[in-house]
Design goal:
Elements lengths: L1 E4 L4 H11 L4 E4 L15 H16 L3 E10 L20 H11 L9 E11 L8 E11 L15 E3 L4 E2 L5 H7 L1 H14 L1
Parallel strand pairs: 1-2, 1-3
Antiparallel strand pairs: 3-4, 4-5, 5-6, 6-7
Helix pairs in contact: 1-4, 4-5
Bound molecules: 2'-deoxyinosine 5'-triphosphate and magnesium ion (MG).
The site of 2'-deoxyinosine 5'-triphosphate (Y43) has 24 residues, from strand 3.
Protein name: dITP/XTP pyrophosphatase
GO molecular function, one term: metal ion binding
Enzyme class: hydrolase
């Protein structure tokens, strides 16, 4: 199946291509000159669907939207939906991490609990009344400083107790198997097969 990924994030594209394998031909929306959708939703679900509709509308192809973020308990769920623009500059992972660590200064380990959330939405066409939607959650803690250089975004400061290391210290295959995105995609595949 040929489909378009409604995202400008190279990290997502890389992970989702690995996860989908050969049965799917996943094209970045940039290949078709599609600009970013405006993320005006109040939930990951709303944004994932509106991204998918936007890309499908512009390309005429089925589309996959990914809206994701890091929700930190000590910050009442922030940066959450606004993870990509937390520092004020969209998509600047270094600045976003600096702001996050600054806001958690002095917060002890056991109060630094957080989770990555990923919602994937698949639409067959732009006005599909039945988008397939799947959510994945990955529990962890925000570290005090960066560790590792794999992955993207907040990976260097996300500690996974289940793995005993940061997300950026995991091989891609392990992150893909156990991450919020990996879990969401496994669920979406089941929905696609139904
Ligand atoms: O596995 C992950 N590892 C580390 N960080 C992650 C992950 N998954 C999401 N994140 C962070 C990156 C970004 O700060 C925000 C997503 O924001 P989000 O709007 O969904 O994506 P984006 O703006 O980068 O690309 P786009 O909207 O074009 O898909 O959460
Ligand atoms: Mg975004």
């Amino acid at each position: 199946m040929k489909l378009v990924l409604a995202s400008s994030n190279a990290g997502k594209l890389f992970e989702l291509r690995e996860l989908l394998g050969d049965a799917f031909e996943l094209h970045a929306q940039s290949e078709f000159g599609v600009e970013d959708a405006e993320e005006t939703g109040l939930s990951f679900i709303e944004n994932a669907i509106l991204k998918a509709r936007h890309a499908s509308s512009a390309t005429g192809l089925p589309a996959l939207g990914d809206d994701s973020g890091l929700c930190v308990d000590a910050l009442d769920g922030a940066p959450g939906l606004y993870s990509a623009r937390y520092s004020g500059v969209h998509g600047n992972a270094e600045a976003n991490i600096d702001k996050l660590l600054g806001n958690l200064l002095g917060v002890a380990d056991d109060a630094r609990t957080a989770r990555f959330v990923c919602v994937l939405a698949f639409v067959r066409h732009a006005t599909d009344p039945q988008p397939l939607v799947a959510e994945g959650i990955w529990e962890g803690r925000v570290l005090h400083a960066r560790r590792g250089s794999n992955g993207f975004g907040y990976d260097p400061v996300f500690f996974s107790p289940a793995h005993g290391c940061s997300a950026a210290e995991l091989p891609t295959a392990t992150k893909n198997r156990d991450s919020h995105r990996g879990i969401a995609l496994a669920k979406l595949r089941t929905l696609l097969q139904a």
